[in-house]
Specification:
By secondary structure, the protein is α/β, with parallel strands linked by helices. The chain is built from 15 helices and 22 strands. Helix content is 37%, strand content 22%. Helix 9 (280-292) links the parallel strand 12 (270-274) and strand 13 (302-308).
Length: 501
């Protein structure tokens, strides 16, 4: 068992391939290998080279992490909320001090360009700031409800909680969950994506440096077996999940069947509705940025442009904006070769079915970086029989669908089983309000390509984009990781009694 190697700085300051180190599990304050002894490679998507390895854990590893979290819970719960928050203050300072290093680490393990990786770390810090603010919001309520009788509500921790995070935001998504859960007094088991374990590793290392007691946060790496063990563990009271809709549904059903509180955020098929009076330059640039930012590997990426009437000039501007994207500089790599091949398969299929490829990224490559590349791609004339219409591609592919009216556009958006995000591009306030009030999506925008709510507003979709109640971030997140205790008190008999007394 050791702790020192996991504080090893990541030395990269460019996109040049830089090996790192092997990752371990973090259980009870110690860095330990998996019980299984098995590992798998962590590969830099830009170069296709191995940076290190990550453990493949099993149910016994999860049980060890849960036992450590259970043992740490009574003492952590007893720490006053304002003292718990001080650790997040210190974590924020450490992350700000190491911002560039963490951003380069994320860029190398995930494939993002540096500026996108840095933005995701900064968003994680913003989530920390909300957690730090919770003492000003979490006081509960109290009221004298009758003569001599007071009712009070406090928000109590659940106990051991767990989070399962995806590959696309290795630091930000864990920090959607950890601040609220830890400030509330819970202990935690985090299962990061096996493809990007280093971001979670650094969070654990920095929290330890910030003074978090051993066992309060535990990190277990692995694949399906570790996720199933989290769902089945009788000691874990709540699970937060972010990933595909297919797995989100499985986690929700399996965890709920064991009596857990589960909030599982799934996939998306986000629609951007463009009407003829939309600002041409703003709209074209925003459509391209939404579709091709983070190589389309985010649940908030636009994947369908719904063209209402004659907006060909805007589509031409979007194509031009996409053509000007410099692969490797403005847009990063795809997470793995299988994902890149799957994305190209959707493009091939749409073309065979009659879609016109206005911009083709299938053969894109970057000199000196023989990794996983798909360039910006725009498909026009996509129809309902095409998987490019229905499926979440999760890559830099924009599909264009043509309709005649705003009502047709709204009906098309609402026919999608997902309900993550939708936006309308218009200069008419009445049209904007009409659409926003009718979209069946949890996050909506007007002239916004990625309508992500900033803290303290919460993140979460509807329909098949979310399983469970509430949202993941903001005050909804704090309520998810807590349970309300209602206390009614009376200290003296009253002469003028009511039915309550």
């Amino acid at each position: 068992m050791t702790s020192a190697p996991h504080s090893t700085p990541f030395s990269a300051t460019s996109y040049d391939f830089t090996p790192y180190r092997d990752c371990l599990n973090f259980i009870g304050g110690e860095w330990v290998p998996s019980h299984t002894g098995r590992t798998m490679p962590v590969t830099n998507p830009r170069h296709g080279k191995v940076m290190g390895t990550v453990p493949v854990s099993d149910a016994e590893d999860v049980a060890r992490a849960v036992a450590a979290a259970s043992a740490a819970f009574p003492a952590w719960r007893a720490v006053p909320l304002k003292e718990r928050v001080q650790i997040l203050y210190r974590l924020k300072a450490l992350m700000e001090r190491q911002l560039d290093e963490m951003s380069w680490l994320l860029s190398h393990e995930n494939g993002k360009i540096f500026s996108e990786a840095q933005g995701s770390v900064l968003k994680g810090i913003e989530c920390l700031e909300f957690g730090i603010s919770l003492p000003n919001m979490a006081a509960g309520q109290q009221l004298d409800v009758s003569r001599g009788i007071n009712c009070q509500v406090t928000y109590e921790p659940l106990g051991v909680c767990a989070g399962i995070s995806p590959f696309n935001f290795p630091v930000m998504v864990p920090l959607w969950m950890l601040p609220q859960a830890l400030v509330a007094g819970n202990t935690f088991v985090l299962k990061p994506s096996e493809q990007v374990p280093f971001g979670a590793m650094r969070i654990a290392q920095l929290l330890r440096e910030a003074g978090l007691p051993d066992g309060v946060l535990n990190v277990v790496n692995g694949t399906r077996e570790s996720v199933e063990a989290i769902c089945d563990s009788p000691e874990i009271r709540a699970i937060g999940f972010v990933g595909s809709t297919k797995v989100a549904r499985i986690v929700y059903e399996r965890g709920s069947a064991h009596g857990k509180r589960v909030l599982a955020l799934g996939g998306a098929k986000n629609h951007l509705v463009v009407v003829p009076d939309a600002d041409p330059e703003l709209t074209a640039q925003t459509l391209a940025a939404s579709a091709f930012g983070c190589a389309g590997q985010r649940c908030m990426a636009a994947s369908v442009t719904v063209a209402v009437g004659d907006v060909d000039h805007i589509i031409e501007g979007m194509v031009e904006a996409g053509r000007n994207v410099k692969l490797g500089e403005d847009m990063g790599a795809i997470i793995n070769p299988e994902a890149a091949e799957r994305i190209r398969g959707y493009i091939d299929d749409a073309e065979r079915r009659g879609a016109k490829v206005l911009l083709d990224g299938r053969k894109a490559q970057v000199d000196g970086a023989p990794g996983n590349w798909v360039g910006p791609t725009i498909l026009d004339g996509v129809t309902p029989d095409m998987p490019a219409w229905t499926d979440e591609i999760f890559g830099p592919v924009m599909s264009i669908v043509h309709v005649k009216t705003v009502d047709e556009a709204i009906a098309l958006e609402n026919s999608c089983p997902y309900g993550n995000a939708a936006s309308i591009f218009t200069t008419n306030g009445g049209v904007a309000r009409y659409a926003i009030e009718r979209f069946q999506a949890g996050m909506c925008g007007v002239n916004i390509g990625v309508p992500v709510p900033r803290e303290p507003f919460a993140f979460g979709g509807w329909n098949d984009s979310r399983f469970g109640a509430g949202d993941m971030t903001g005050y909804d997140g704090y309520r998810f990781w807590t349970q309300p205790r209602k206390v009614t008190t009376r200290w003296a008999a009253q002469h003028d009694q009511t039915w309550m007394s």
